[in-house]
Amino acid sequence: MLTRRSVVGSLLATSFVPDISAHAQDVYPSRPIRSICSFTPGSGADIVVRFFSNKLQEVSGKTVIVENKIGAAGNLGTEFVARSKPDGYTIYICPAVNVLASAKYFYKALAFDPVEDFEHITTLAKAPLLLVVEASTPFKTARNLADDLKKRGAAGGYAAISNSSQVLCEMFKAQFGLETTEVRFRDFPSALGEMRTGNVSYTYLDAAQATGHVAAGRIRVLATSSSERIASLPASYPTSIEAGIANTDIMFWWSVQVAKGTPKPILDQLETWFNKVVELDDTKKFLEQFGQAPFPGNPQMLKAALAKEVADWAVYTKIARVEPQ
To answer: What proportions of the chain, in percent to the nearest 5, are helix, strand and coil?
Structure first.
């Protein structure tokens, strides 16, 4: 039997009570965020991605899960993010110069545009790559190394362990007029064995990975890839210009991207969180430990810097005679 009370109660339940659960779902983030790393677990890149992902979790109070999407020198992870749903739940903490700015010069058919297919959040950190040789070699300077390789001609070798290291090694060759042969390696530990035997003489390595090998006495640093000094690197490391590598002045940096079309309130929230992370004392100590420096930014600065790097890498890869695959 219907009564006035039951009818009013029914109307209140169905028509006048707001849908609190639906509103709650609109609050970002309401579920875990995936942080994509395009390199192998335990690599220098993976260490950096996991650090910033953990710090994002701390400042946001939300769960952040790192997923490694490996392949094609980072392109598979990059494409995964570009094609992800633009909702802020898939983020890309990446070495932007390595995997975004230079990508189209190494691969003919990219499935993404490094500038236009992403929303650009902010920059995080920067560091040069380091010109390294095996510690037992007699080479104390870049010129010592170049003089030896000049004598060896094409019998000399360098280790290409990434697209960036290949370009820098080729630019080193161009600077000194060398005929040194490229030898490709999957990672630095496998290259180090060949450096010990003398089959390859040098490579360029990211500072995060080089730090431990330098401390263990396995490698020696002959120069950085940039004319800018980083305070966390020893003053004894010559800059590229000081070392006589006049054609090389390249700084590598980290950034955060999400898929194109992600709503602006989410972009603003991520920018706020990540810039908060960059300012943490823990972050500064972590970056110092791996020869890097904080590099706070904003979306406009990041997009402009990335577009400039894309143009710069057209020049670098031409010097290095890179043929896209």
So the answer is: 45, 20, 35
Predicted TM-score (pTM) of the model is 0.84
Identify the burial level of 297 via C-beta atoms within 10 angstroms of its C-beta, where 0-12 means exposed, 13-18 middle and 19 or more buried.
buried
User: CATH 3.40.190.10 in the chain, residues?
Assistant: 129-224
Residue 202 is classified by DSSP as B
129-224 fold: D-Maltodextrin-Binding Protein; domain 2 (3.40.190)
**Residue 215: exposure state from Cβ atoms within 10 A (0-12, 13-18, ≥19):** exposed
| Residue 170 DSSP SS3 | helix
pLDDT by residue (tens digit) across 109-128?
889 999 999 999 999 999 99
Where residue 107 falls (left for φ over 0; alpha for ψ -120 to 50; beta otherwise) is beta
Please name the fold of domain 32-126+253-319: D-Maltodextrin-Binding Protein; domain 2 (3.40.190)
pLDDT digits over 255-278, tens only?
Answer: 999 999 999 999 999 999 999 999
- Strand residues in 179-298 grouped as ranges (E): 181-184, 203-206, 219-224, 252-259, 293-294
Angle at 148 between CA 143 and CA 197, to 5 degrees: 120
Q: What stretch(es) of the chain map to CATH 3.40.190.150?
A: 32-126+253-319
Element containing residue 24 per DSSP (H, E): helix 20-25
Q: Distance from CA of residue 183 to its chain's centroid?
A: 23
